[in-house]
Structure formats: C-alpha cells, structure tokens
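Sequence, please.
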C-alpha cells in the first residue's frame, strides 16, 4: 500500500502541464510525464476526453520520448474546456505510468 501511495504522489509531482496563448487565439498545451519507474525505451501513450487526446483511445497517441525518463505531447485547441487525460502503455490492460 505504501508503494502505491508513493507512486501516485510521485506521478502527480512529476507530471507537468504547460500552456501558452498563441497569436491566433488558440492555446498550446504541453503535457509532460517524468516516470522513474518506467524504462527509458518504454512506449507511453496518452488519451483523454477531447479529440486532440483521441477521445479515450488508449493506444492511438504515442508520446514523444524526451530523454531522462521524460515523455511529452503537445496540442493546440481553440475551445476552452476541462481536459482530462490518462497515460497508458498502449491499452487499458497496461494503463498507468
């Protein structure tokens, strides 16, 4: 139980989001995952509740490896909304990072 809690706390501390207003009025959102428990050569995917995040399709959007156990994915949106997302390893059977 302590290990699960530690991993969850580490996940929330090391998963970062950044956004920027672009000149055309859209917003660029960058999502980064840093995971010390995944091998650097892991294929990490992201999915979520908006079309730019594959409408919850867990194996559609592969994040880009950035080195040092970090993966990134960025997208633009014109519609303000709450963004929900989840990291997977390609399927719901292999979810979480």
């Amino acid at each position: 139980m302590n290990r699960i809690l530690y991993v969850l706390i580490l996940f929330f501390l090391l998963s970062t989001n950044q956004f920027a207003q672009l000149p055309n009025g859209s917003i660029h959102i960058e999502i980064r995952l840093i995971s010390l428990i995944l091998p650097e050569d892991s294929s990490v995917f992201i999915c979520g509740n908006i079309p730019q995040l594959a409408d919850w399709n867990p194996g559609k959007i592969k994040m880009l490896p950035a080195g040092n156990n970090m993966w990134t994915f960025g997208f633009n949106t014109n519609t303000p909304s709450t963004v929900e997302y989840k990291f997977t390893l390609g399927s719901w059977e292999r979810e979480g990072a």
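The first strand starts at residue 16 and ends at 21.
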